[in-house]
Amino acid sequence: MRILYAAIDQVVPGTLGGSTHVQAVAEGLAALGHEVHVAVRAGLPAPVQRSALNSAETSDAKPADVAYHDVGAPLGSPNLRLLRRGRLRALAAVLRPDVVIERYHNFGGEGLLAARTAGARTVLEVNAPVVDYPGSPKRTVDRLLLVEPMRRWREWQCRAADLIVTTDRAILPRDTPAGKVLETDWGADTTRFHPGATGPVPFARQPGDLIAVFAGAFRAWHGVGRLIDALAALERRGSAWRAVLIGDGPERPALEARVAAERLTRVAFTGSLPYDAMPAALAAADAGVAPFDPAAHAPLQHGFYWSPLKVFEYMASGLPSVAPTLPRLRAILADGEAGVLYDGSAPGALVDALDALGGDTDRRRRLGAAARARAEQHYSWAAHCRALAATIEAMRAAPRVPAG
Predict the structure, then answer these.
(1) Does domain 210-378 have CATH number 3.40.50.2000?
(2) How far apart (Å, rounded) are the C-alpha atoms in residues 201 and 194?
(3) Whether 107 contacts 74, CB under 8 Å
(4) What residues have CB less than 8 Å from 404, skipping those under 6 apart?
(5) Cβ distance 315 to 331 under 8 Å?
(6) How many CB atoms lie within 10 A of CB 77?
(7) Strand pairing of 121-126 and 35-42?
(8) Dihedrals φ, ψ of 89, to 5°?
(9) Do 2-187+381-397 and 210-378 fold alike per CATH?
(10) Pick the CATH number of 2-187+381-397 from 3.90.1150.180, 2.40.160.20, 3.40.47.10, 3.40.50.2000
(11) Please, what is the Cα angle at 150 between 147 and 153, to 5 degrees?
């Protein structure tokens, strides 16, 4: 298949989960022998840069190559993505893809429109709710506009797609036919992330230290503040745990200021790291912490629909994950057979979970080995891409259903 993957609000290569996701899916599909072109905002240095817009040639890529095309959203804003529909249409006209995959956004649709011009089948990759949550300000504005244009446009995208790939059917419109939905988790690169990964490590380990790593965005619902609360309590107990916080985001300056003001000596911030540096950083830790706080993110009223990349990468690295007891996380961690689950609503539960894990070397090793095995079996990008490619092939073989 020749595939055009429209993800123009994502920076590739980049340090955020969306960047990792796009690159991993593109590379995974290419590794299966498909010709993959990706419309993104180019990061620096860019991986493979070619643009079919500048040449009559469709591609000079080898079968396992990915061709990246710099078609970023205007001003870097996802809300302006639709203004690039002409660029996507021109790219599709040159490439003549068999399939266009679009990474969903409320104000997207440019890939779906380009597919119509090229006569390609369409896949909508849905990572966030299409339906509004109770009390959504966007829903209020939409109703004031009387004809509810935002809801209608979102629902049109779902109708126009031949296939929808998502982590949770609950975030789709209720009338979405079950037969056009592939419900699946995302994954980790289990070749790149493994317990023996080597390379520069962005923290120093002192004798006797245990390293609890957090990797991700510093936003309220990722719960980094809860991990700092736990480390402050553990430091007062004289615990061996240290926290290494990898990433960036709006909460980081305040959290750094807090750590400095409280003189917490066992919490370190590394900032964002290049993706290639992450395997060694995780492999050098003793546990991965994912202290999600669903109450801090209103869309999670739909349920914990996230398929958490950080947890899959912890698992692939052979780390026991420490996470709140939420249904999706319980399923991923096999009810505690591949990690430690704690009651996120109970004060001190994260402290107690880390304290107990820190005092049991054999348990950490056992959980880490189970996590690695589970990641290889269920949560690799390779497995995700095999399932995705097989479902797309089946969709292409079926008669086309007229879109609304």
Answers:
(1) yes
(2) 15
(3) no
(4) 156, 159, 160
(5) no
(6) 12
(7) unpaired
(8) -65, -40
(9) yes
(10) 3.40.50.2000
(11) 100
Task: Please state, in angstroms and rounded to a whole number, the distance separating the CA atoms of residues 25 and 31.
Answer: 10
Domain ranges of the chain: 2-187+381-397, 210-378
User: Is there a cis peptide before residue 13, judged by omega within 30 degrees of 0?
Assistant: yes
Each residue's pLDDT, cut to its tens digit, for the chain (404 residues) gives 999 999 999 988 888 889 999 999 999 999 999 999 999 998 755 444 433 333 323 333 344 589 999 998 888 888 999 999 999 999 999 999 999 999 999 999 999 999 998 999 999 999 999 998 888 888 888 888 888 888 999 999 999 999 999 999 999 999 999 999 999 999 999 999 999 999 999 999 899 999 999 999 999 999 999 999 999 999 999 999 999 999 999 999 999 999 999 999 999 999 999 999 999 999 999 999 999 999 988 888 888 888 899 999 999 999 999 999 999 999 999 999 999 999 999 989 999 999 999 999 999 999 999 999 999 999 999 999 999 999 999 999 988 876 65
Strand partners for 341? 323
Beta-carbon count within 10 A of 60 CB:
9
State both tokens at 391.
């479902």
Report which residue type is found at 293: D
Gap between the Cα atoms of 379 and 74, Å rounded: 34
Specify the amino acid at residue 140.
T
Tokens of 270: 């590394």
Amino acid letter, residue 264:
L
Structural Rg of the chain based on CA atoms = 22
